[in-house]
Design goal:
seven-stranded mixed β-sheet; single chain; about 35% helix; two-stranded antiparallel sheet; 12 helices; 9 strands; alpha/beta
C-alpha cells in the first residue's frame, strides 16, 4: 500500500486561513479552566518559536499534550510535522481542533482523553518528538514518567516543553544551583536539559502569575552512570528531604547507617545534597541497593 505524500503547501495555506485564536476561543466558549491547569498561548509568533525549538520536525510524529484551541498544534503542522497526535481531555476544545484537522487532513489525530492514562505506542511511529505547553497541574508528573521509562533510550527523541520557570530551572539545574534537587538529578542522569527561552505571563490567556520557560530535553544514549532507578529515587528523596542537613544526618531516613554508605563511595559525610554530582548520587544509589540485595 502506497501512502500519498501530504500536500504541505495546500495545508499551510489552509492553516494560515484559519481564524485568530481569540476568535476561536470566543466562538467555542473556551474559557480557560483552572482545574485543568489551562493557560492558552495566543501569540502565533511564539507558538512558531516553540515549534522551531524542537528542531526539524519533517518526517517526525509529534505528541502534544493539552492542545486547547490548537495554537501550538497549528505551528507544529506548519513546521512540517509528519503527524501530530494531540491528547485533550477538555471536550470543549474538540470542535476547534476539528477545524485544524480539516485544514491538514491526515496529519492531526485528536485523542479525547486523560494524558496520564494515555498509551502513546499505538498512535506514533518513530522518530517521535514531544512538544507541548503542558497543563500546570500534570506537567511534572508527565515529565517524570518520560524520564523513568523502563526502556532506554525512550520512544521519544526529544522533549520540548513549557513549564513554570521555577520548575524549568529545577529540571536544568546543576550541582550548586539553588534549584538543584531530585528533578535535576533525575533529568541529568538520563538526559541533557536546557532552558531555551522564557515567555512572559502576558503572552497567555489568562495570564499566569509567573513567567514560563521552554525546556528542551534530549535523551542520553546511556545514563550518565549505572544506578537502579528505585534506589536512586530513594537516595535523592532522603538527601534532599532534609537538604540543609549534612548527608550523615539526612540519609538516616533510608533506614541504614549512612556512614558506611558514604565511606564506600568516598563521599565526605559533612557534605550536603546540593553539592553532589549526578555520578555521586548514582554511586550512593548502587551502594544503597547493595545493602538490600
Amino acid at each position: 500500500m502506497v501512502t500519498e505524500t501530504p500536500d504541505f503547501a495546500a495545508h499551510a495555506e489552509a492553516l494560515h486561513a484559519l481564524p485568530p485564536l481569540r476568535e476561536v476561543v470566543g466562538r467555542h466558549e473556551l474559557a480557560a479552566k483552572k482545574a485543568l491547569g489551562q493557560n492558552f498561548l495566543f501569540d502565533l509568533n511564539l507558538t512558531g518559536r516553540v515549534a522551531r525549538a524542537a528542531g526539524d520536525l519533517t518526517g517526525c510524529d509529534v505528541l502534544e499534550i493539552g492542545p486547547g484551541p490548537g495554537g501550538l498544534t497549528r505551528a507544529l503542522l506548519l513546521a512540517g510535522a509528519r503527524k501530530v497526535v494531540a491528547v485533550e481531555r477538555d471536550e470543549r476544545a474538540l470542535p476547534a481542533l476539528a477545524e485544524i484537522q480539516a485544514a491538514a487532513p491526515g496529519r492531526l489525530e485528536v485523542v479525547d482523553g486523560d494524558a496520564l492514562k494515555f498509551d502513546p505506542a499505538p498512535y506514533l511511529t518513530a522518530p517521535v518528538k514531544i512538544v507541548a505547553n503542558l497543563p500546570y497541574n500534570i506537567g511534572t508528573e508527565l515529565l517524570v514518567r518520560w524520564l523513568t521509562a523502563p526502556q532506554w533510550p525512550p520512544f521519544w527523541s526529544s522533549l520540548t516543553l513549557m513549564f513554570q520557570k521555577e520548575v524549568a530551572e529545577r529540571i536544568a539545574a546543576r550541582p550548586g544551583d539553588s534549584g538543584y534537587g531530585r528533578l535535576g538529578v533525575l533529568a541529568g542522569w538520563r538526559t541533557q536539559a536546557e532552558i531555551v527561552f522564557d515567555i512572559s505571563p502576558q503572552a497567555f490567556f489568562p495570564p499566569p502569575k509567573v513567567t514560563s520557560s521552554v525546556v528542551r530535553i534530549r535523551p542520553r544514549e546511556k545514563p550518565l552512570a549505572e544506578a537502579d532507578l528505585s534506589a536512586l529515587e530513594r537516595v535523592t528523596a532522603a538527601a534532599f528531604g532534609q537538604r540543609r542537613k549534612m548527608l550523615r544526618q539526612s540519609l538516616k531516613s533510608l533506614g541504614v547507617e549512612p556512614a558506611p554508605l558514604l565511606e564506600a563511595v568516598g563521599i565526605d559525610p559533612q557534605r550536603r545534597a546540593e553539592t553532589l554530582s549526578v555520578e555521586e548520587f548514582c554511586a550512593l544509589a548502587r551502594a544503597f541497593a547493595a545493602t538490600r540485595a
